[in-house]
Amino acid sequence: MNDVLTPPTQNPDAAQVPLKPLGKVLAVTSGKGGVGKTFVSANLAAALAKRGHKVLVLDADLGLANLDVVLNLYPKITLHDVFTGKARLDEAILPAPGGFSVLLAGSGMVEYSRLTSEVRNEFLRVMNSLVPNYDVVILDTGAGISDVVLFAVSLASEVLMVATPEPTSLTDAYATIKVLVGQQQRQVIRVIINQATRPGSGAAITNQLQQVLDRFVVTGLNQPIRLVHLGDIPVDPEVRQAIMRRQLMMQATPGCPAGMALTQLARNLEDSVIPRAA
User: Fold this and answer.
1) What CATH number is given to the structural domain containing 214?
2) Segment of 10-19, 112-121, 268-277 carrying the highest mean pLDDT
3) For the chain, how many structural domains are there in total?
4) What is the pTM of this model?
């Protein structure tokens, strides 16, 4: 976790330049909104923390942040205060239910709808300070392919694409993956299917996406992009109940089907990209 992220210099299209990913930084992203990115980010962090990892979740949806809502937190200091020099980074990091830390962003900040050089540089500074202090940093990004979202994803060593079985979600996931391959030369993207309706359906959906990508999308090295099916989260009424109560599901009902699925997702990450905690 000691890598330092060095931005390209004097490049007006910096948002489109693939940066050297930092440590074990996981970007949880999606093609469209409403598929459960923030739910996955928070509960996956709790599952990893329970397994002994030191985890921080950064709300990288800078203008439309809602991680605070999911966790029922009321921050007095946010990432906006750090960016503007009104507070130190350590003052903005909060303990979250579930045993992990969070760095929350302000909501409704129109100045973060575009990736200015100031926002970019502050984001880099914050990430360079955070990463050496955690086993895992999870970036809960916005949806889609805006320059702010793509920049946040470019900082990650691994991309977790969250989608639902709905055709609109899968179409937007495909479009987003295509952009990540073209702009960041991503070769591996891990897929989480949320709201899966039956066992095994997520693997089949991921395979269908893979077939389309094999046909139409190649990396800059003229190699096919590889999708890794990380796992499914089944349709579970406990998910909605936890969201409505503003409770972390991995604390309230960890033994429910969705909770067990998230625990398995954490195990799968340990088996692939995150060393097991000592």
Assistant:
1) 3.40.50.300
2) 268-277
3) 1
4) 0.91
